[in-house]
Design goal:
Blueprint: H1 4-10, H2 16-24, E1 29-34, H3 42-55, E2 60-65, H4 72-75, H5 85-89, E3 101-102, E4 108-111, H6 125-134, E5 142-147, H7 153-161, E6 164-169, H8 173-193, H9 201-208, H10 218-226, H11 230-242, E7 246-252, H12 255-271, E8 277-283, H13 287-294, H14 298-301, H15 306-319
Parallel strand pairs: 1-5, 1-6, 2-4, 2-5, 6-7, 7-8
Antiparallel strand pairs: 3-4
Helix pairs in contact: 3-15, 7-8, 8-9, 9-10, 10-11
Bound molecules: adenosine-5'-triphosphate and magnesium ion.
The site of magnesium ion has 5 residues, from helix 3.
């Protein structure tokens, strides 16, 4: 888990003792799949990355954290699991492990999001910390989180808490715009969660709200802030270096669609100062709706499709 996770936990004193145990625990990787916009392939990506890892012999748990519109089970070819995260948070289920539901794919289980009025946006800080803590109880090699659309604090915190934060977007202006909004919100939240930067919190807010038309980017403004104090400079440099969200462009049809990822990488470096890690693209492929219609996972239903090889390339990159 990322070091920022400690700060999300730290807001919940009861969990302090648990943290020490957590950081001494054997390595398990948590990946979160997010993105600013709805319908950009987050659930498709979560499902197929999970399946890919499971087929490689890894023990995988996919968790549907899109508590407002949970549908990951359909992408994985299973029925709605009986118990959901809201049952756990409402204490109808006492052990987190009991939420694990096997899927038709060996090595792969799912934990379902809420199927009731319980909304992600309403999740309290304690409940979020409770879920993050219990991820540690899960016996798996990989935990893959399917996040909802938007930039609620809960979504941002799960994205930041993961070892790898992966965004999907489409090669179209509205989706790209929302992706920048999402990235900016995550970056801003990450800096705000850093305890060593608390004294300059208001200056970070100002830097992150810098506008291009004022001729200053957040990267320039943060650099100016760094120059005021060598300690702040060191911490900011560490936080910025640590931050390397990953990007997948989904539904590509042309080379220029693929190239959008490289442009976004350049813009993030110039405008925000951090490295966006462009890890690959997914072709637009008819096999997606064919598999969704059949309620079967794409990767096992169409093992020879272009999209399957796209997913294999992405997982190879993520695991190497
Ligand atoms: N590469 C692709 N080729 C063709 N269709 C695709 C592709 N990726 C996604 N789709 C279609 O787009 C729809 C949205 O995908 P998905 O449900 O994975 O997005 P999402 O980001 O999880 O959406 P939400 O924000 O609503 O949870 C799916 O119904 C799927 O049919
Ligand atoms: Mg989804």
């Amino acid at each position: 888990m990322s070091s920022t996770l400690a700060n999300i936990y730290a807001e919940d004193d009861e969990n302090q003792a648990f943290n020490h145990k957590l950081f001494a625990a054997p390595k398990k990787e948590i990946w979160a799949i997010g993105g600013g916009k709805g319908g950009v392939g987050k659930s498709l990506t979560t499902a197929n990355i999970s399946i890919c890892l499971a087929l490689m012999g890894k023990r995988v748990v996919s968790i549907d954290l899109d508590l407002g519109g949970a549908n990951l089970h359909t992408c994985l070819g299973t029925n709605i699991p009986e118990a959901s995260l809201s049952d756990f948070l409402n204490r109808k289920v006492s052990h987190f492990q009991d939420l694990l539901t096997p899927t038709p794919i060996k090595n792969l289980s799912i934990i379902s999001g809420a199927q009731d009025e319980f909304g992600m946006a309403n999740m309290k800080q304690m409940q979020k910390a409770k879920i993050l803590n219990h991820l540690e109880e899960i016996d798996a090699d990989y935990i893959i989180l399917d996040l909802g659309a938007g930039t609620t604090l809960n979504t941002l915190d799960f994205f930041i808490a993961a070892d790898k934060g992966i965004m999907t977007t489409l090669p179209e202006p509205t989706a790209i715009e929302n992706t920048y909004r999402f990235i900016k919100s995550v970056f801003h939240r990450k800096l705000k969660l850093c305890e060593e930067l608390i004294e300059v919190n208001h200056l970070i807010d100002r830097a992150m709200n810098a506008k291009m038309n004022e001729n200053i980017s957040p990267a320039d403004a943060l650099q100016k802030l760094a120059q005021t104090n060598p300690h702040i400079q060191k911490i900011l440099a560490r936080e910025i270096n640590d931050f390397a969200p990953k990007l997948i462009i989904n539904q590509v049809r042309t080379q220029s669609d693929i190239d959008i990822g490289f442009s976004m990488k350049l813009i993030c470096k110039k405008y925000f100062g951090f490295n966006l890690d462009y890890i690959g693209y997914l072709d637009y492929d008819q096999s997606v709706w064919q598999s969704v219609k059949k309620r079967k996972p794409l990767l096992t239903e169409f093992p020879n499709s272009i999209l399957t090889s796209n997913f294999e390339n992405i997982v190879n990159k993520l695991t190497n």
